[in-house]
Design brief:
5 strands, 5-stranded antiparallel sheet, alpha+beta
Length: 249
């Protein structure tokens, strides 16, 4: 039965790819298919890697694709506060299924209020992995509370597996003209972290924490704060309260 459903979903994916614009990536089409097939409000895919000197403790890479602004905001929020379903799915290697996000405030005190304000009421994350090797997650949200059915969960796991193979194919360089989406759109976060590390003479982990704290304090997207750092509009000092919000370095 599971193999039959995989065949059906793979066929739907290939048909959607044939009908999509030439510039559309496989992952963007897969995320759109997930929204339609699973009857959710939005989907996003994230490829993760360790930013903490390769020890795997602080996965940080960036958004690959999101179907709408709320999905983009949810992914950025998790990078900002360092918690959420995407990061939990990556850490545990299993799906994270939250039918009513309002009840998860104690689990994710930093993520949940922001996610609710964005318009998410339920969140579901499925890891992208091959065996023990974890690559990222396929993240879904719904604008109203509610559980996924067993069939929906089964199909979401299949779609996550198809997304994993899409990532691996791109990494191996076997796809034709479809590798652009794999470029890290959060590269500025890594660059800004390095600049803050030099400004404060601190570790990468502490520099990233300061970047996240500034974004959280001023309710700004993490990527926007990073861009201000790289454009030398924001410089970090030894005291967090003295961080300049808009003065060129």
């Amino acid at each position: 039965m599971s193999q039959d459903r995989r065949t059906v979903l793979l066929s739907r994916l290939e048909s959607s790819l044939d009908a999509a614009e030439e510039t559309a990536s496989r992952m963007s089409v897969l995320c759109a298919l997930a929204v339609e097939h699973l009857a959710v409000s939005g989907a996003g895919a994230t490829v993760l890697a360790s930013l903490a000197d390769g020890d795997g403790q602080d996965p940080s890479r960036g958004l690959v694709h999101a179907t709408n602004e709320i999905s983009t905001g949810l992914e950025d929020l998790q990078l900002t506060v360092g918690e959420g379903p995407c990061l939990d799915a990556f850490a545990t290697g299993g799906p994270v299924l939250i039918a009513d996000l309002a009840e998860s405030r104690t689990r994710w005190p930093g993520f949940t209020p922001g996610a609710l304000s964005l318009g998410a009421a339920a969140v579901f994350s499925f890891p992208l992995h091959i065996g023990a090797a974890r690559l990222g997650s396929l993240d879904l949200y719904h604008d109203r509370p509610g559980r996924m059915s067993d069939i929906q969960i089964s199909d979401a796991l299949i779609l996550a597996d198809l997304a994993t193979h899409a990532v691996v194919t791109e990494l191996e360089g076997h796809a034709s003209g479809d590798a652009g989406w794999l470029a890290d759109p959060h590269a500025e976060i890594h660059q800004a972290t390095g600049m803050i590390q030099a400004q404060l003479n601190t570790t990468t982990e502490n520099a990233l924490l300061r970047l996240r704290a500034h974004a959280y304090t001023y309710s700004l997207p993490l990527l926007d704060v990073a861009r201000r750092v790289t454009e030398r509009q924001l410089r970090f000092t030894d005291e967090p309260d003295d961080d300049q919000q808009g003065t060129p370095a």
